[in-house]
Amino acid sequence: MRIRFRHVLAFMLPAIAAVAFFAIYPLAYTGALSLQKFNLTSGAPAKFIGLGNYVRLFSDSQFMNSLKVTAIYTIWGVLATMVLGVLLALLLNSKGKLVGFLRAVSLVPMLICSMALSVAWALVYNTNFGALNAILQALGLPTQNFLGTVKTALPSLIAIDVWQFTPYVMILTLAGLKGISPELYEAARIDGANQMQCFWKITIPSLRGVLVTTLVMRVIDTFKTFEKPLVLTNGGPAMSTDTINLHVFNTAFSSWDMGYGSAGSIVITLIIALFSAAFIRLSRKAEN
Amino acid sequence: MKKLIALLLATAMLVFSSCASGSAPAQAGNSAPASPEELSGTLTVMWLAGMTQTAVLKQMVESDFTKLYPNLKIQMDEVPNNEISQKALLEATSGASVYDVVMQAGTLPQLANINALEPLDSYIARDSFDISKMVDNGISFKGNYYGIPVRYDSFLLHYNATQFAEAGLDPDKPPTSWEEFETYGKALINSGHYGVSRGYGNNILAEAFVNTVYSLGGDICDSSNNPVYNNEIGFKALSILISELTDTKIVDQAATSWNYSEEIAGYLSGGTGMFIHYPARYVDSNNPEKSAIVGQSRVTSMFGQNVLTKGSYALIFKTSKNKDASWEFLKWLADAEVQKQVIKNGGDCNPTNLDVLNDPQMQAEYPVIAAIKGQFDRARTWPLLTQTDAIGTNMNKYMNMAATGAMGIQEALDASVADARQMLIDTGELAE
Fold first, then answer.
1. Which terminus of chain B has fewer CB atoms gathered within 10 Å of its CB, N or C?
2. For residue B116, what are the domain limits?
3. Chain A environment of B89 (Cβ under 8 Å)
4. B:176-235 residues touching chain A, CB 8 A cutoff
5. DSSP string covering B154-221
6. Smallest CA–CA separation between B337 and chain A, in Å?
7. Does one domain contain both B189 and B276?
């Protein structure tokens, strides 16, 4: 038994070492740094201040604003991608050349690098020569300063996220749909079920596992959003697009306040961990 | 015996105290400058990308400098402007940077404060290098020289002479005060152009604000590093900038989301009559690939008491193993003939050698050099503090809030100053 355990340990050791080095050590180091007052440019040594950075974080109106912005961004972004992704999957869940072509085309936004995509959208949203304003003008409508007003900047960023990630939800949902046995639908129809009843009683319950997993991935991904606000608005106007990751990045890498920045990173990690744990639990419940 | 012990102890204390009383001044690698043939190895340089001047200079490094130093290889890694300061600081803190020379702007205090830079004083003394012939765009810190200036970026007034004429303004009489600037802006608006191109986005307004404060005779920090830009002058400066957007509306209303490239495009596209910006825009305005106003733009010295000046400098990392070669490279960059050639080869007209700036022939040939010269005595840099960059970023945020109406002008200034104070207290640059 002991020899077997040693063998298992020997095989697992490289993986354990990799996880420890690349995940546990950086996290522990960040955690330790978050308890210190340490500015990289001051030349002064780090000083232990306990939970001082966390107290400062939660009394910082800019940090609280970034939490609010991220929450709004995540809720609307995830909701829209999930609904549109499932709808698209249902529409494209058939055979045929056109459907195949549409499926392939719909994947394009997901394949583009986020930074490049953000630069392209900056041109689309441009007030003076952007494609969207050209369309508005052609329709006789007033042009909009999409990224320049508090009311429109965040929805404009959410729209890009929805455009980019709806295909991701669609693909996963399509995979789930392929796994549902057609016999279930046939049996339901024999029993007199209509399409809506089939959708709610067969499709959705069968997709529950896929949808929960997709939801978890989308929430984590959207919560971590960084490149789009960085490239398109840098958190403005009036901090209306200052997402939590961007805020922490700017704190850590403009003022080089590494202690405070680390505290922000730990809070982000904890929030994402909580989300993940809650969704995994939900997923298990759904399976049971 | 007691006397002998006391004598030994006193001697030991004397030796110990002399060792402990601060580090000895840095010495140049060799006691005399090396001949070009003696210098060998590879010089790795972190080079600023995306500027006309640095691109031309890079070509000249590859052709002319390498001819002068045949045994020296030079590896120039181009880094974009918005990444170069972070990259340098991360390299410096790693303690094992591959770079010998780094090009930076505004970050010298941060790097010097963490002991990442080689002081140049001993090299300057050894080679009798006349540092007084170089412009000061923030190359010294706490009594030591650390950098050789490579770019001299001083705010100038650029204006479109054709649009001035269309608006009934005399192209030979550009505005000489903020009041006139506003009047000219209104005249330009009435003739179908925007008055001024200015970005109010989240990472740009601070420089325009500091320049306006300086032009009104104000300061960002007082002599004890205390931020004071929420005073009357600061209020007036920000009011001037915001009223251009909200009251007189002499700027494009889309400018609330404009940052660096958009405000440049605003002027070079021909949509705007005036632009307060760096010397490089003069060269850009006459480049048909970048400009729709070729031959229309003129440039003059900035009005007001003082003017904001910055620019890049070349620094030597303390970890460099090629310090002598690095110093020779810095000296070559500072050379008047090299700088003249950069301008003649189409680079931006922002020389750092006073022999170029004061050259009547260069001034006659390149009006932008005459404009820089005209305000040279009034030029001021940002405060030389480790937190200057962070204070600028913070200012941008609050000023964008004031510009978009999310905060009042005084409220935004007070909040920004409070944050700036805290940053300086945290780094020990301001007494609590």
1. N
2. 41-149+312-349
3. 40-41, 256
4. 201-203
5. E-EEEEEHHHHHHTT--TTS---SHHHHHHHHHHHHHTTSEEE----STTTHHHHHHHHHHHTT--SB
6. 36
7. yes
Residue B33 lies inside a defined structural domain of this protein: no
Between strands B272-277 and B194-196, the pairing is parallel
Q: Do A236 and B202 touch (CB under 8 A)?
A: yes
- Which residues in chain A touch residue B393, judged by CB atoms under 8 angstroms apart? 250, 254-255
Shared-domain flag, residues B55 and B136: yes
Residue A16 lies in a domain: no
- Are B185 and B274 in contact by the 8 Å Cβ rule? The answer is yes
Closest CA to B284 of B349, B340, B357: B349
Q: Could you list the residue range(s) of the whole structural domain that residue A219 is in?
A: 59-287
- B115/A43 CB distance under 8 A: yes
Query: What is the C-alpha separation between A168 and B105, in angstroms, rounded?
Result: 42
Find the angle CA(B373)-CA(B376)-CA(B377) to the nearest 5 degrees. Answer: 135
| Same domain as B326, residue B178 | no
Instruction: Please tell me if residue A257 touches chain B, with a CB cutoff of 8 Å.
Output: yes
Domain of A233, CATH number, reads 1.10.3720.10
Quick check: A153 contacting B, CB < 8 Å? Answer: yes
**B406 and B279 within one domain:** yes
Decide if B397 and A257 are in contact by the 8 Å CB cutoff: no
A194 assigned to some structural domain? yes
In a domain, A38, yes or no: no
Q: Choose the mutation target among A36, A39, A41 for the interface with B, i.e. most B CBs under 10 Å.
A: A41
A261 within domain boundaries: yes
B246 touches chain A (CB under 8 A): no
* Number of domains, chain A: 1
Domain count, chain B: 2
3-state secondary structure A106-166: HCHHHHCCHHHHHHHHHHHHCCCCCHHHHHHHHCCCCCCCCCCCHHHHHHHHHHHHHHHHH
* Residue B413, domain member (yes or no): yes
Q: Cβ separation of A255 and B387 shorter than 8 Å? A: yes
* B224 in any annotated domain: yes
- Min Cα separation B299/chain A (Å): 26
* H-run or E-run covering B44: strand B41-48
- Would the CB atoms of B406 and A237 count as touching at under 8 Å? yes
Calpha distance A109→A99 (Å, rounded): 17
Tell me the pLDDT of chain B (432 aa) as tens digits: 455 555 444 444 444 444 343 334 445 666 777 777 778 889 999 999 988 899 999 999 999 999 999 999 999 999 998 889 989 999 998 878 899 999 999 899 999 999 999 999 999 999 999 999 999 989 999 999 999 999 999 999 999 999 999 999 999 999 999 999 999 999 999 999 999 999 998 778 999 999 999 999 999 999 999 999 999 999 999 999 999 999 999 999 889 888 888 899 999 999 999 999 999 999 999 999 999 999 999 999 999 999 999 999 999 999 999 999 999 999 999 999 999 999 999 998 999 999 999 999 999 999 999 999 999 999 999 999 999 988 998 999 999 999 999 999 999 999 999 999 999 998 889 988
Question: Which CATH number characterizes residue B137's domain?
Answer: 3.40.190.10
Q: Does the CB of B401 have a partner CB in chain A at under 8 Å?
A: yes
Residue type, B351: P
For residue B318, being part of any structural domain is answered with: yes
- Nearest chain B residue to A128, by CA: B254
Cβ contact, residue pair B406, A238, below 8 Å: yes
Domain boundary pick from B349, B373, B404: B349
ipTM of the complex: 0.76
Chain A and chain B share a number of CB contacts under 8 A equal to 101
